[in-house]
Amino acid sequence: MSEILSPVSRRVREITIDADGVQLSGLLGEPAHAPPRAVVVAVHGGGMRAGYFHGQAHPGLSLLELGAGLGFTVLALDRPGYGLSAAQLPTGQTLAEQSVTLHAALGAFARRYQTGVGFFLLAHSFGGKLALTAAADDIGDRLIGLDISGCGHRYAVDTDELPDPHSLTTRRLSWGPLQLYPPNTFAGSRSLLVPMPEREWREAANWPGLLPGIARRVRVPVRLTFAEHEAWWRHDEEAVATMTGMLSGTRVIVDRQPDAGHNISLGWAARAYHLRALAFLEECMLRRAGTVT
Predict the structure, then answer these.
(1) CB 261, CB 175: distance < 8 Å
(2) What is the distance between the alpha carbons of residues 87 and 145, in angstroms, rounded to a whole number?
(3) Stated pTM of the model
(4) Hey, is 291 helix, strand or coil?
(5) Whose CA is closest to 211, among 233, 228, 196?
(6) Which domains does the chain have, with CATH numbers?
């Protein structure tokens, strides 16, 4: 594992992790004066990069800065096929392969850094699919919980629209009303927007069939958040009940984020959402410690 020493901001720097031969780039925020209470691993969606969780359009939007200020290490990784690993994996990886790579990255990180009570996955959109898959594969009990936004079970769009989340016809699905975002968001987000790797978008259409087998193996608490203006996924009561029913082996919370579009962590609602997610982490930490049941 190596680090690029130039800081991205006051508390955030770039990092590279060797995940069993796959070089993953990302961003790292750490508490200033004490060991971390836990590690928040931020997992971005399709066609985005790790900087999604480090919004700079307005003060207070960054999950990395907020989490570090509250005593957590926050590790936002570029998923396999994104960032540094794009050259090595030009067509990306399947969800099962990404899960293996993610666990390898967490293992490498834990060998060098303190991790507190463990790893908490905070994931968005396609990253939510990976978070659930990684939790299902978590034989080492290193995960303490999942907080997932913008990921459901049944698509609200035709699957032909999935390969390009940045096209003119699908842009409204990803962003929703433009007034939900600070004025500088779209100019500043250009560097975050990249094509989805081919193997990833080909598998995306299969998610409704993949989820039941994955969900039944998840044992850590899960919080699902749907934005008020979420348009990629069905999030009516029936659709949500079907999804939560699949997660029958664990505790599931469903939340709604008002005044937000699909890309919650880049909008005005980002801080409110991140605080709610970190509050859920606090609950997961209590459960891991055996303080509550």
Answers:
(1) yes
(2) 31
(3) 0.94
(4) coil
(5) 233
(6) 2-289 (3.40.50.1820)
